[in-house]
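Reply to dn_fold:

You asked what the input looked like. This is it:
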Amino acid sequence: MSEVPQSILTERRGPILIVTFNRPEVRNAVDHAASKAMQAAMDLLDRDNELFVGIITGAGGNFCAGADLKEQAAKDSQPPQLARGGFGVIRRPPRKPLIAAVEGYAVGGGFETCAACDLIVAARDAKFGLPEVRHNVLATGGALFRLPRQMPYHLAMELALTGTFKEAPYFERFGFVNRLAEPGKALEEALKLADSMLMNGPLALAASKEVIFQCLEQEEDWTKQMPFAQRVLNSEDRLEGLKAFAEKRSPVWKGR
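and this is what came back:
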């Protein structure tokens, strides 16, 4: 019997922890097991005094295609909420600086994972987007209130309401992406960025990150979105959207 591959990989490179989404067969779509493993990796980054910076990346040429909608469609109820929120990182990222190294697709929850990171390095041909509206699912992983703070309001609104994907240079132009890399070189460039940070004091790095995070992040944002989200999440159309995705067909919306 073959061993099941780990859905999240961790690698230490000195004071840097590299965390890799490792479900390339589904473009690194995240199921509950992967979320739990990511949370464990973020806990390790916070807990270990010899780790100063984290990098999240993806295996197989993609960052993350979001939540595993086939898993959601097959279940009647949502899995229990994790302490760090969706994907084990989105609601409460680590106290230490976290860099997203993006190749290929970073969409849905993958995009929201990037928004939860402190810096983003992306390959020039990487694609970002929020396709949730296409499936009558709401982006409840923070993007709807974080993106308008991280890029111009109207452009964030366009992403949320159209579900279209845009490539990394578009996001670099508006300050969402810090650095562009050649395809296949995002992790390499992210490591260079991490090394430039590691010339500084690790306690000051963590404190600076946390001050900025705490000043911008409002805990009530997470609860304020839920009355709006619940109507969508409990709707017939949500189930139809997920089934249509799993069956590779166009959804038939009823508006209820």
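The two ends are 46 Å apart (CA to CA).
Hope that clears it up.
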